[in-house]
Amino acid sequence: MRTIRHFFPEINAWMDEIRDPRFLPSIVYHKRFLVWWGLSLFLFKLGSRRQLDYELDAQNTRVLDNLNRLAGTQQKTRPVNKTLNYFLGRIGAQQVADLRTRLVRRLLRMRVLDAGRLQGHWVTATDGTGYLLFRQRHCPYCLERRYGEVTLYLHQVLEAKLLGPEGLVVSLGTVFIDQSDTADTPADADAERRKQDCELKAFNRLDAQLRTTFPQLSICYSGDSLFGCGRGLAMGNGPRRAFVYVLKPGRLPTLWQEFQTLLPLCAGQRRELVTSKGVRQVYRWVDNLSYTDSDKRPWSVTAIQCEETVDGQTTTWAWITNLKVNAETVISVATKGGRHRWHIENQGFNTQKNSGLNLEHAYSHRCWQAFYYLLQIAHLILQLVEKGNLLRQLAQELDKTPAQLFGSLKNIARRLLESFRFVRIQDEAYDPVAAAQIQIRLDSG
């Protein structure tokens, strides 16, 4: 609770600004209480909406007292999970997304994420992932995938996740990949308009969304080789934009061949490094490579190659970028802008799918997008708890590391749940004034 109050002292006031279309005389549960009720589903990693009725039962527990003080309410009973589903369906997903945006803006203003910047840009990994999968059509906007005689119906999502310090991954923007934008497309429209939605088509909408929600933010897109095309280069060359995309010979074969041909001629553009673990890295780059996309637009990029040798085995990576690359910057561009892109998969999607947040579970067939945004907010709060030095200090009091004390991220959520159920959390933990007086530093350990 202290972490929440420290980073987000105004979060309850922001919840108050949510427009609630419910019929006022019939309202039993305050909207702040219901938002926190929904966040609890993910903060405690309950796994399904139904578990709210069991794991957060108010009978013979401290749940209602703790939740009331967290939300600043005076509820006499706790709701059932269907009440939450009804509430989210009424307020809509966008208002939950707006709450997420306010939390991120607060962290940016606090300069919590500054250490993750690269040449003045916030490195933002962009990647898509599967979200929901059904064997029968879920809605008119499902994507279709055929595997032999089997047809699967999907909902996917394209995320922009800001890569902060110490492995912090912050959901910055979200676009759902479905058929909602082509549902009314005429039958005689061209193939591009009739094409199913995909990551590249969604990228345009994602960039437009970020320009609306964070108009002053300078972003460096970090993406896989899929974005190494005219559309990706156009997004990455816009105002307040840069890019670092994976370069593979199969994606841009002509550019790759030119890069490999010119590398031996640029012997001075080389930087070697031996890490503290004895890993040898060799960085080489070539400036001003030309590329013309399918729309005949000319582009100029810098290509970087990193050869890493571990125990005699060499692995090679390559990227293209429009950032400044020289002997002083090549390592940071390749590392922060290139290799750290994997955080969106490891600390981002993988954690959300496999650590108890249960990303691919259909928490609702009616307002699943709102639940998705609640999950992103809860994951942000959990990361601040897990990576904050308060947790390390607690472990040190017992002469242990957090990993030794809890064993896993899921176990941390379980301990939080047990505390919330059976311990009356001290009032000081809910006090934003007291929380503002402490320091919380992010710790990679």
Characterise this structure.
This protein is α+β, with helices and mostly antiparallel strands and 445 residues long. Helix content is 40%, strand content 21%. Among the domains are: 2-93 and 366-436, no CATH class; 247-328, no CATH class. It has helices at residues 2-7, 11-16, 31-43, 52-55, 63-71, 81-91, 93-110, 191-194, 199-213, 230-236, 253-262, 330-338, 343-354, 368-387, 389-396, 402-406, 409-422, 432-436, and strands spanning 117-118, 121-134, 143-147, 150-163, 169-177, 219-223, 241-246, 270-274, 280-292, 298-310, 313-321. Strands 1, 2, 3, 4, 5, 6, 7, 8, 9, 10 and 11 form an 11-stranded mixed β-sheet that branches. Strand 6, helix 10 and strand 7 form a beta-alpha-beta unit. It is globular, with a radius of gyration of 24 Å.
Beta-strand content bin: 15-25%
How much helicity do the residues have? 25-40%
Output the structural class. Answer: alpha+beta
Kindly, what is the distance between the CA atoms of the first and last residues, rounded to a whole number of angstroms? 21 Å
Average pLDDT confidence is 89
The number of distinct β-strands equals 11
Largest sheet: 11 strands, mixed
Mind sketching the topology for me?
Blueprint: H1 2-7, H2 11-16, H3 31-43, H4 52-55, H5 63-71, H6 81-91, H7 93-110, E1 117-118, E2 121-134, E3 143-147, E4 150-163, E5 169-177, H8 191-194, H9 199-213, E6 219-223, H10 230-236, E7 241-246, H11 253-262, E8 270-274, E9 280-292, E10 298-310, E11 313-321, H12 330-338, H13 343-354, H14 368-387, H15 389-396, H16 402-406, H17 409-422, H18 432-436
Parallel strand pairs: 2-6, 6-7
Antiparallel strand pairs: 1-2, 2-4, 3-4, 4-5, 7-11, 8-9, 9-10, 10-11
Helix pairs in contact: 3-5, 3-14, 7-14
